[in-house]
Design a protein that fits this description.
two-stranded antiparallel sheet; single chain; five-stranded mixed beta sheet; 389 residues; mainly alpha
């Protein structure tokens, strides 16, 4: 099947184009790059772009022997690579400790990304970056898992009150160890507001054991992993190309597209898979097999892919909040466009349900929390006015 290269990439700066070209090359090709002609590159901006997209480990291993790249750029990449290797080793050790603790207390857990994903996709944990550990547990085991993290020395990053059925409104909570500064995101759902998803029991039945450790550390099965990675990447507008590189590697390793498409249709996220594959094909040269055609057919997938280029092109900041009002509005419209008609209906209904942000905007004693339901439209409007101000 021909690669899909019909996205409009004309607004991409030269530094991103060169980075994408390197990501497509093997080590031998990257070593020879620049021999005949050198494009006009702002090397400081090039380094900034690589760091933003978190692809410096893979690119350093390809470029380290290219003597046409400025020595200070290679030195900076070498330093980043070394720091990341140390970080991933620390995360690997902590991952084993946390998963062992959960297992000893009867809590099944699935590691979603981090070192297990780096090992699976790249065969080397030093070739992918990760800032934290994302671990999925059954919803009914969340409180016990929190107790285990507390016993391991972790502290909650949020002290907001948990209103009503708070697990329905959220999909994870984060804990940070005050000494090591390692963060664990404890998940009980894969996504926040994208609607239906496989229950933990199904994911556990399709799990696979990671080869990263002799201990029992499990991760999602191939099709579930693809569905999770494209949903996660789409939710974050693919603003880091590290996530798209993961999709490229997963597809190249081989994927049962018939099973994957059936699964994603069931959980209403086929359009997100199409967006990811179109982007991977256009930006990274991922070869798409004919079996993937049902996933990328349709104008909606192409539209979603094109809209995400806005966030990939510029160095945008989403955390803790979007860096500008314009970015925030564009991002909200993009998120809404990702949803199916049914998901949009569920999302709109969910807006009527109180959240912890309402308690921050209008604190009420616990015995009066029921008032957040009738007051929700007014509190929401008040919060929007404050944000605009």
């Amino acid at each position: 099947m021909e690669n899909n290269r019909t996205l409009d990439l004309s607004a991409f700066p030269e530094e991103i184009n060169i980075m994408l070209a390197f990501m497509k090359m093997n080590a031998d090709q990257a070593q020879e790059w620049g021999k005949s002609s050198m494009p006009d590159i702002d090397w400081n901006q090039f380094l900034k772009v690589i760091r933003h997209h978190r692809v410096y480990p893979q690119l350093f291993t390809k470029l380290k022997n290219n003597n046409r790249i400025p020595a200070d750029v290679l030195q900076a990449l070498h330093q980043d690579y070394g720091q990341n290797t140390f970080q991933m080793l620390r995360l690997s050790g902590e991952m084993g400790l946390v998963c062992k603790s959960f297992l000893e207390h009867g809590i099944p857990s699935l590691v979603l990304k981090g070192p297990v994903l780096a090992d699976l996709l790249y065969g080397d944990i030093s070739l992918r970056t990760s800032k934290d550990l994302d671990i999925l547990v059954p919803m009914e085991s969340v409180e016990t898992a929190e107790e285990m993290l507390t016993k391991l020395g972790y502290e909650s990053d949020s002290h907001a009150p948990r209103l009503f059925n708070w697990k329905w409104k959220m999909h994870h909570i984060s804990y940070t160890h005050p000494q090591t500064r390692i963060q664990v995101e404890l998940h009980w759902r894969l996504n926040s507001d994208m609607g239906k998803e496989p229950p933990f029991e199904e994911l556990w039945a399709r799990r696979r054991r990671s080869s990263i450790s002799k201990n029992e550390i499990y991760m999602l099965g191939s099709e579930d992993l693809f569905m999770y990675l494209v949903s996660h990447g789409a939710r974050h507008a693919w603003f880091r190309l590290r996530w798209l590189a993961d999709i490229d590697r997963l597809v190249r390793q081989g994927l049962d597209f018939a099973t994957t498409i059936s699964l994603m249709r069931r959980y209403e996220c086929l359009q997100l898979g199409g967006q990811a594959l179109i982007l991977a094909s256009a930006l990274l040269g991922t070869t798409l097999p004919s079996a993937a055609k049902p996933m990328i057919t349709g104008s909606h997938q192409r539209e979603l892919a094109q809209r995400s280029l806005y966030f990939i092109r510029d160095i945008v900041v989403f955390s803790p909040v979007p860096s500008s009002q314009e970015l925030a509005k564009t991002y909200k419209r993009y998120l809404f466009a990702l949803k199916t008609t049914r998901q949009k209906s569920v999302y709109i209904v969910g807006l009527l349900y109180p959240s912890f942000r309402d308690t921050e905007a209008m604190p009420l004693p616990k015995q009066l929390h029921f008032l957040y339901f009738p007051l929700r439209p007014f509190v929401w409007l008040w919060r929007q006015m404050r944000q605009e101000a």
